[in-house]
Amino acid sequence: MQKQAIFQSKLLPYALVAPQLAIVLIFFYWPALQAVIQSFLLQDAFGLSSSFVWFDNYIELFKDAAYFEAIVRTFFFSFAIAVSSLSFALLLAVMADKPLRGSMLYRTLLIWPYAVAPPVVGVLWIFMLHPSLGVLARYLRNMGVDWNPLLDGNQAATLIILAAAWKQISYNFLFFLAGLQAIPKSVFEAAAIDGARPMRRFWTVTFPLLSPTIFFLLVVNIVYAFFDTFGIIDTMTRGGPGTSTVTLVYKVYSDGLLGGNLGSSAAQSVILMVMVIVLTGIQFRFVERKVTY
Amino acid sequence: MVEDEGFRRYVAHFILWIGIAIVAFPVYIAIVASTQDNALIANGQMSLLPGGHFFEVYYQTIFVGTSGSTREPVYNMMLNSLVMALLIAVGKIAISIISAYGIVYFRFPFRMPIFWIIFITLMLPVEVRIYPTYKIVADLHMLDSYAGLALPLIASATATLLFRQFFMTVPDELLEASRIDGAGPLRFFWDTLLPLSRTNMAALFVILFILGWNQYLWPLLITTRDDMQTIQVGIRKMITTTDALTEWPVVMATAVLAMLPPVFVVVAMQKLFVRGLVEAEK
Questions:
Q1: Residue A118 CB neighbours (<10 A)
Q2: ipTM, 2 decimals?
């Protein structure tokens, strides 16, 4: 698409894009390039000299069982967070889409968790489910559950998934509601006249018409689970117990923090970049086809 | 429709209230905990009803901070978060709107490559280039500064795309008209385009303010001084590894305070927020 009416000026357009371009080059491309270069280098223990080692860092990484586990874990977390949050949000959105009294109030009461920061989400949930002082942990113990996410890796992972899914409900709810409201009511009425019961109407009419939104949200939720859960993990478990809640992003952070292997940390960053590019690519191709919100 | 709608409506109300309860419960617990005595909570005997220490706990949280490792008063953390969020939101909008203007309303060599250079940054979230970016900010002597907190997060492909899309819908006749009035490119931008973009800017501001306020990983890395800490980083540092030392009422009060500004923005600006969100994702 091109504008027909434009201005003639030689220097002004460059001045207009200059600030954006400067920031992008200094804080995006330069560090990304650094990461790529670093990922091909091996530094000695004191960081004094480094040598070019081609793909050794990557090969090391893929031979490392811990890295492989982090990949599997990240995908499992993403999937669990996306599915639980999406299904609950869809249920709420279908209910809120009905002509109910006070639907604006419902909407307001359901969307605000979007604004809660991930570390705060982490703090809220660890407090509720803290083994010795958590209110919910008390009930779990009374029910005979041996609840201690500080020691049990599976319980810690459950905790992260719960908290991360909780935060994402509001976002998914909003997009589902917008998607539902874009479907003409006459479609439902036609299906109803044809004798389709509500459940059947949902699966044969609503769900297919909503599938672009569902797919869009699935991608967004996976990206969210990859990156935005960092704050939740860091406040709740710091990757522990053991490495049972270390995701790919958390691993880049913690490996780099310990300062052990810069080359490996950089290689991890590059692999993550490739994953993001693929995910964004999918999302964009899809968005280009004009989703109806 | 054909079925008994009355009963179905009751079910819908019921499910929605359950949803609201699930969404609100953790926050209710935080508010209740922030009014209670720490010893009671540490014993695992926290009551589900508000206690009587509201003023005490919030006074301590806002003006003193925890008595343990980080003694930073929370009002200072909130101030840092506020400055950072405002810098990010205003900065992003400012540089995005002028670069979109340049790309849409001018023809110049390298126009499309420049557009793609900006566009590709969509795919480079700060998390994946965290250490090299840290090093660059350190080399530029911007650690522990507002510039270091905000600048690396200011570039925004999304905002640029959004303004570009909006400018495309602005009718050409407006430009012709202002040209007949003798207006140059800067005049047209200032007098015509900016006023037209007001709602877009406001909607974007709501989203970006929340985004900025909720940043965590970046400020965690680049702030070392306690007085430069943002509230999101501060709250994590309040939870000490030895649980006995964590002052939970203060932590919960901090959590409540950290939630207030962004939640207020979402609820008060609901229309703009929804609009900004849906548009930003398009």
A1: 26
A2: 0.89
For residues B243-264, average pLDDT? 87
Sequence-distant (≥ 6) Cβ neighbours of residue B162 within 8 angstroms:
B96, B100, B200, B204, B279, B280, B282
- Which residues in chain B are contacts of A92 at CB distance < 8 A? 15-16, 19
Burial class (CB in 10 A: 0-12, 13-18, 19+), A122: buried
User: In this structure, what DSSP letter does residue A260 have?
Assistant: S
Helix axes A153-181, B270-281, angle to 10 degrees: 100
Q: Which residues contact A287 (CB under 8 A, 6 or more apart)?
A: A216, B281, B282
Determine the Cα–Cα distance for residues B98 and B197; give it in Å rounded to an integer. 12
| A268-277 pLDDT per residue, tens | 888 888 888 8
Residues of B in contact with A1 (CB under 8 A): 168
Please give the Cα distance from B187 to A139 (Å, whole number). Answer: 66
Kindly report the pTM of this predicted structure.
Answer: 0.89
- The pLDDT value recorded for residue B1 is 47
- Are A32 and B129 within 8 A, CB to CB? yes
**Closest in A32, A92, A284 to B19, CB measured:** A92
- B128–A34 C-beta distance less than 8 A: no
CA distance A246 to A236: 12
Instruction: Give me the torsion for CA of A266, A270, A276, A279, rounded to 10°.
Output: -150
Burial A4-16 (b: 16+ CB within 10 A, else e): eebbebeebbbeb
Nearest to A73 by CA among A214, A238, A239, A201: A239
Whether residue A249 and residue B239 make contact (CB cut-off 8 A), yes or no, is no
How far is it, in rounded angstroms, from Cα B272 to Cα B205?
Answer: 9
